[in-house]
Design a protein that fits this description.
Elements: H1 3-7, E1 11-12, H2 13-21, H3 23-30, H4 39-51, E2 57-60, E3 63-73, E4 80-90, E5 93-100, H5 111-128, E6 133-138, E7 143-146, H6 153-173, H7 191-194, H8 196-200, H9 204-217
Parallel strand pairs: 1-4, 5-6
Antiparallel strand pairs: 2-3, 3-4, 4-5, 6-7
Helix pairs in contact: 2-3, 2-5
This protein binds iron/sulfur cluster.
Iron/sulfur cluster (SF4) binds at residues 22, 24-25, 28, 179, 183, 185, 188, 190-191, 194, 196.
Length: 218
């Protein structure tokens, strides 16, 4: 597989969060085209539907607020596209605001969500020629939390590029990644389709091969 081939695939910003949460789930969605909704997905959709009203462009407290802003970065090492929930313009500075329904317990953000917003920053900076900041707004606690994207830019940029390369390799091979060790499945809408407990069982074929080998050795 050549690097050129992997670079040709555009990746949606949203799918980066899916991949980092569970590569197997990402593969079921992107490669198998499978999708199941549950309570958490429906709740997240409702929050986003309220935000994603493109008529909502207004000024508030000296901030220009734009919702549902399409962004992209077509540099070969990224080749990303997506829609940001909200971008605020304060003077010449930009701030991405990502909406999530529920704040994680005992921390201010999930790392997969942070990387999704970092990918948005890569696109927003490219489109608007800026160096934006970013925050996550949680609907349940009605609070915004800043994300340390500028401070850790080099680290997150390296991780983003590695993640995009891995995703492209799976897409080109048409292969669904294996379930990771210690994968947390609570709240996953794909549990009924995925049946992770069954997949963790040793494969029947392997068992038959082991039995055959043993009987040949006897
Ligand atoms: S049930 Fe678990 S392993 Fe299966 S897709 Fe969901 S998170 Fe991944």
């Amino acid at each position: 597989m050549t690097l050129q081939l992997t670079e040709e695939r555009e990746i949606s910003i949203r799918s980066i969060q899916h991949f980092l949460y569970c590569p197997h789930r990402w593969g079921l969605i992107e490669i198998d085209r499978a999708w199941e909704e549950n309570f958490f997905v429906t709740k997240a959709n409702q929050v986003h539907n309220r935000v994603h009203d493109s008529k909502q462009r207004y000024t508030s407290k000296n901030r220009k607020i734009y919702t549902s802003v399409p962004v992209y970065n077509d540099l070969a090492e990224y080749n990303l596209y997506g829609v940001t929930d909200c971008i605020e313009k304060i003077g010449e500075d930009y701030c991405i605001v990502e909406y999530k329904p529920t704040k994680p317990k005992e921390r201010t953000y999930n790392f997969d969500d942070l990387m999704q917003v970092f990918a948005q920053k890569i696109c927003v900076d490219y489109v608007f020629s800026c160096d934006c900041i970013a925050e996550i707004y949680y609907a349940d606690v009605k609070r915004r939390f800043p994300l340390p994207l500028k401070e850790n830019h080099l680290e997150y940029d390296k991780l983003l590029k590695e993640t995009l390369n891995k995703m492209r390799e799976y897409l080109i091979k048409g292969e669904i990644p294996e379930i990771q060790k210690n994968q947390k499945c609570n709240g996953c809408s794909m549990k009924d389709l995925c049946m992770p407990q069954l997949k963790k069982m040793p494969k029947v074929r392997n068992q038959i091969e082991t039995i055959n080998r043993k009987s040949e050795e006897e």
